[in-house]
Amino acid sequence: MISSLKRFPHFWCLGAQRRLYVWRSSVHYVSDDLLCNRFCTMTETININQQPKVTESPELPDWVKIVKEEEAAVKLEDDDFLLPSFSEWVKNEKLRAREIDVRSLASDLTENDVDKISKVLRFNFKSPDAVVDELNKSRFVVSECLVEQILKRFSFEWIPSYGFFKWAKVQKDVTLSSDLYNLMVDNLGRSKKFGLMMELLDEMSHLQGYVSLNTMSKIMRRYAKSGKCEDAIGAFERMEEFGLQKDTSAMNLLIDALVKGGSVEHAHKVYLDLKNHIAPSVQTYNILVHGWCRGARKIDKANETVKDMEEHGLSPDVVTYTCFIEAYCREKKFPNVDAIFKEMQMKGHSPSVVTYTITMKALGQAKELNKALDVYEKMKQNGCVPDNSFYSSLIHILGTSGRLKDCYDIFEDMPNRGVSPDTFTYNTMITIAAHNSKEEDALKFLQKMEESQCKPDICTYAPLFKMCCRMRRLKVLSFLLNHMFKNDVSMDLGTYALLVRGLCRNRNPERACAVFELAVLRGFLPTDTMYDNLVKELEKRGLKEEKKYVEELMSQAKQQASDISSEKPKDIKE
User: Which segment of the chain is annotated as a signal peptide (predicted)?
Assistant: First the structure.
C-alpha cells in the first residue's frame, strides 16, 4: 500500500465576565509532565512558540519527529458545543466542564487517595513545609505507586511535589525507593532548585546504594540544560565520593548531557581532558559527532572527530554516518546525502531504519514527495523493515501533502504489517486531524489511544488545545485539560504559552489572563513573547486593570527567577 501511494490548575469559567476579580474567583484545577533519546545523546526540552518539544527515540532527532502546524482560520462556533458522538465519553469520564470551583470539581472526581492528595496539592502553598502541614491534617494510605503518580503529576511544580515528598518519606506505610528519590531529584532540577537538589543528593548518600549512575546523570543533565556546564562537570568529578566509578559510561553521560545542553564545546573539552585517563568508546565519538553536526552545525569539526576516532583504532558505524546524513538533510544537500549512502555501502555498513526515516522525512519537508516515497523502495531492496517511527513519519509527509485518506489507510494497515501504533503515531494522526479542523477524527484518535492503553504525552494534547482555541471549543478544551491531568501529564511552560496565545487570538483575554496568572503562581517565568502578546491584547480591549495586574505578575515572576538564578549549589561533603 505504501509503494502505491500539579494536578495542574486551570482557571476556567465558561461564562467568565470581563473583570479580573471575576475570573480569579472562578478557578478550577486540572492537570500536569517526557522521554529518552538513545541516538548519541539522551533526553528532553520545550518549544514555546509552537507545540511543546519532545525527546524522541534514540537515533531519530527531534526535528524529524515533531509535526509542525500552521495556524488555520476557522469561523467562531458555540463555546459550549460538544460533538454528540463524544458526549457519552465525556460523561463517562465524569469530567464535563461547567462553571465550577475547586471544591465542586473535587467532589466530581473519583475519590481515590491519589485524587484526594491532589486536591490538597492544587492549592497555592508558599513553601514545601506548608504542604507538609496541610497533609498532616488528613490520613492517607501511602504506597510507592501513589508516590510515583503524584511526583509525575506535579513534576513541573516543585513546591507541592517536594512538600509531598518530604511528607511521604516519614510515613510509616512506605519506605521510598531510590527510583522515587531520583524522580524527586529530577523534579527539583527541572525547576532549577539546585540547592535543594544537592541537599537531597546529600541525604541519598547516607542511604545504602541510593546514589547511582542514573542519579548523577539526572543531576548533570539538569545543570547542563540550565547552562551550568561547570556545575555539571563538577558533579561528575565528585562521583567517587558516592562510590561510583568515573569510567567510560560515566564520561559518556557527562559528554551527552553537555551536548544536549547546547555546549558541544564543553563536551569536547571534557573529552580532551579525560581521553588519556578514560578510554573513549565509539559512542563517545558518536555523541561528539552528533553535537558538531546538529548543535553547532560544524561538519568540519565532526570530520576531525571521526579522524581522531580512527586514530584511536575505532571505526565509524551506522550511527556515525547517520549523524552526517542528518546534517546534510537539514541543509537540504541531498547529493551529499547520496554520497554518504554510497560510502556507507562501500565500507560494509547497511543503513538502519532510522537512516532511511531521516532521509524520507527531509525529502518530504523539501516537497520532494515522490523521492520521499522512493525511500521505501530502497528499504525493501536492502531488506530493512519499517518500524513505528518510519510509518509515523510517512503519515506526516502524506498529511502535510493533503493526502488524508492515505494517512488513515496506512494507520489502519500498520497492525497488518506487524507494527502497532505507538504514542508518536497517535500524536501524528491527532496533529494532522486537528490541523485540518477535523475535530471528530482528532478526538476519535485520542479515544482509540486510550482504549489501546497507549499512554499520551504532552505532545498528544498540544494540537488538540490549538484546535479548541482556534474553534472556540472551550467545553472540549476543559475536558481535555482534565483528561491530561488524569493521565499524569504535567503542564509545562510551552503549554501555558500555547493556551495564552490561542485564547488571545480568539478574543478570550480574560481566560488568557487566568492561564498567565496560573503559570506565575506555579513558579514559571513567562516568555517575553507570551507576556507581550497578552499585554497587547488587553491594551487593544481597554482592560486597564487586568493589564496592570499582568504587569505585576510578570515582575513577580522575574523576581522569582532572579532568586533562583542567584542560588548557590550546595557542595556535598560528609
Answer: none
Asked if 250 and 271 count as a contact pair (C-beta separation under 8 A), the reply is no
- Over residues 260-302, the pLDDT tens digits come to 999 999 999 999 999 999 999 999 999 999 999 987 789 999 9
**How confident is the model over 13-40, as pLDDT tens digits?**
333 333 333 334 333 344 333 223 323 3
Would you give the distance in Å from CA 451 to the centre of its chain?
Answer: 23
What count of residues does the chain have? 574
**Statement: residue 6 has pLDDT above 50:** no
Distance linking the first and last C-alpha atoms of the chain: 64
pTM of the model as a whole: 0.76
Contact 548, 538 (CB under 8 A): no
Phi, psi of 125 (to 5 degrees): -95, 150
- Rounded Cα distance between 511 and 513, Å, is 5
Question: What per-residue confidence (pLDDT) applies to 167?
Answer: 96
Residue 574 pLDDT greater than 80, yes or no: no
Question: Cα separation of 325 and 362, whole Å?
Answer: 10
* Distance between CA atoms of residues 303 and 293, nearest Å: 9
3-state secondary structure of 9: strand
Give the integer Cα–Cα distance in Å for 126 and 477.
29
- Distance separating alpha carbons of residues 306 and 300, to the nearest angstrom: 10
Percent of the chain with pLDDT over 90: 63
Cell numbers representing residue 475 in the block = 467545553
549/176 Cα distance (integer angstroms): 42
Tell me the C-alpha to C-alpha distance, in Å, between residue 313 and each of 262, 281, 318, 560: 28, 10, 17, 51
| Rounded CA separation 107/119 (Å) | 10
Question: Distances in Å between the alpha carbon of 361 and those of 386, 425, 463, 547?
Answer: 13, 14, 20, 44
Identify the band that residue 83 occupies on the pLDDT scale cut at 50, 70 and 90. Answer: low
User: Which residues, 6 or more positions from 25, have their beta carbon under 8 angstroms from its beta carbon?
Assistant: none
In this predicted structure, what is the pLDDT of residue 85?
A: 52
Cα distances from 2 to residues 274, 370, 413, 418, 430, in angstroms, run 48, 12, 10, 14, 20
The beta-carbon contacts of 129-136 under 8 Å, at least 24 apart in sequence, are 129/163, 129/166, 130/163, 131/159, 131/160, 131/162, 131/163, 131/164, 131/166, 131/167, 132/163, 132/166, 132/167, 135/163, 135/164, 135/167, 136/167
Q: What angle do CA 437, 441, 442 make, to 5 degrees?
A: 70
Written as one letter, the residue type at 123 is F
Please name which of 400, 419, 348, 351 lies closest in space to residue 379, comparing C-alpha atoms: 351
Q: What is the dihedral of CA 440, 494, 35, 284, to 10 degrees?
A: 140
Assess contact for 534 and 502: CB atoms under 8 A: no
